[in-house]
Write a structure and sequence with these properties.
alpha+beta; Aminoglycoside 3'-phosphotransferase, Chain: A, domain 2; 5-stranded antiparallel β-sheet
């Protein structure tokens, strides 16, 4: 009987050879491990003659970032492959195509996106992506609306909640995003030059109360099938194309969480250019571009969401005047709060981000990190004052001075 075993490059090639209708029998295959994530093994298998390639992504039974002392469920591989299939059916072209899911080996064989770049890296070098706002706004609207009670019969939606129950991965987010950053811990490393700011945040009881409210929403609001970890390291881009990857944290949660994750990570990039971009005009221009992108993302999201509300709604109460406006405002308010939580967590929690870590000068990095923490804090505290997307970007402009 076949049993799970972690692959290496040699084993990955042998596995690929056995895949039906994937490579020719005599193909000369080469393999490269390309994973830089915290939880999985990722291999690219290429036929040297035809240059046809695939990705094999395998879940490990522990977190690579910590080691075997932090065991993890292999069930997340099923969640990821099934979430990708749902997203592909709803919004084709915005996720990698899944060729095979192997439950025994906890792996997924999928489309190779070598022509794309991890978005986080592009943002560090001030790349512009003219279609990204439209792409991600549309993706978010379709994947969130069409997996919710608004579009699905009640019983089917409840069955989907069970199908995508993901308690172990959710527990990671519950701790790393909403709890651990607000208490002293060895697993919360941070730049010593921001120690005063960290103490200030951890002693701010109003902030912690608002984070607790947001955590309660994350725990209880099974609104739609969310990606669950939609940061700029889970998005691959070219100038023309956008692909969302790695939905292993997917579950039924609050719609605003995914939108907030995108906004929060774009604002981390915004803050990081205090250290990356020394020329003042260049920095101001790119930061303005990022804020405009955030505004455009919401604009595209809202337009598509309203169109779906009008054309795809299965909820009879959806026709009540004012309901769609109320619904969208709650998503936006949630998104602001979750964006703030995401920003704080990436500065003073476990697993930092390349945007900040690639700033070599500790004092410049501290300046960028303090700005990110200030923005994150105010987004959490002031989220109930948000009425439109420009309220978020205006707040950022005020804090930046």
């Amino acid at each position: 009987m076949l049993q799970y075993q972690a692959l290496n490059e040699y084993k990955a090639i042998n596995y690929a050879r056995k895949l039906r209708n994937m490579f020719k029998t005599n193909a000369e295959l080469v393999c490269e491990e390309i994973g830089d994530g915290n939880l999985n093994l990722v291999f690219r298998i290429t036929d040297k003659s035809s240059e046809k390639s695939i990705i094999i992504k395998q879940a490990l039974p522990y977190a690579r970032v910590v080691g075997e002392a932090w065991p993890l469920t292999l069930e997340r591989a099923r969640i990821e492959s099934q979430a990708l299939n749902v997203q592909q059916s709803i919004c084709p072209g915005f996720v990698p195509i899944v060729y095979l899911y192997d439950s025994t080996m906890a792996l997924t064989v999928m489309e190779d996106l070598s022509s794309h770049l991890i978005m986080r890296k592009g943002l560090v070098t001030r790349e512009c992506y003219p279609h990204f706002a439209c792409h991600i706004g549309t993706f978010l609207a379709r994947t969130l609306y069409l997996t919710s009670d608004l579009a699905l019969p009640s019983q089917m939606k409840k069955e989907k909640v069970v199908q995508f129950s993901n308690p172990e991965m959710c527990n990671i987010s519950e701790n790393l995003i909403f709890t651990d950053p607000y208490f002293a811990s060895e697993t919360n490393p941070f730049n010593p030059l921001i120690a005063d700011k960290v103490v200030e945040l951890r002693e701010n009881n109003q902030l912690k109360l608002e984070v607790a409210k947001l955590k309660e929403g994350y725990l209880t609001h099974a609104q739609a099938l969310i990606h669950g970890d939609l940061h700029t390291g889970s998005i691959m881009v070219t100038k023309e194309s956008t692909k969302v990857i790695d939905p292993e944290f997917a579950f039924y949660g609050p719609m605003g969480f995914d939108i907030g994750a995108v906004i929060g990570n774009l604002l981390i990039s915004f803050a990081s250019h205090e250290g990356h971009t020394i020329d003042l005009q260049e920095r101001m221009d790119y930061q303005a571009y990022l804020l405009t992108m955030i505004e455009q993302i919401w604009t595209y999201f809202e337009k598509e969401f309203r169109d779906l509300w009008e054309k795809e709604s299965k909820e009879r109460m959806a026709v009540i005047p004012g309901f769609v406006d109320h619904y969208l405002l709650q998503i936006l308010v949630d998104a602001a709060g979750y964006a703030g939580c995401k920003m704080i967590r990436r500065i003073i929690g476990l697993v930092h981000v390349w945007d900040m870590e690639s700033i070599d000068d500790p004092s410049l990095r501290a300046k960028a990190e303090k700005l990110a923490l200030s923005i994150g804090k105010e987004l959490v505290l002031e989220r109930q004052q948000v009425q439109r997307i420009n309220d978020i970007t205006s707040l950022v402009r005020q804090l930046t001075g």
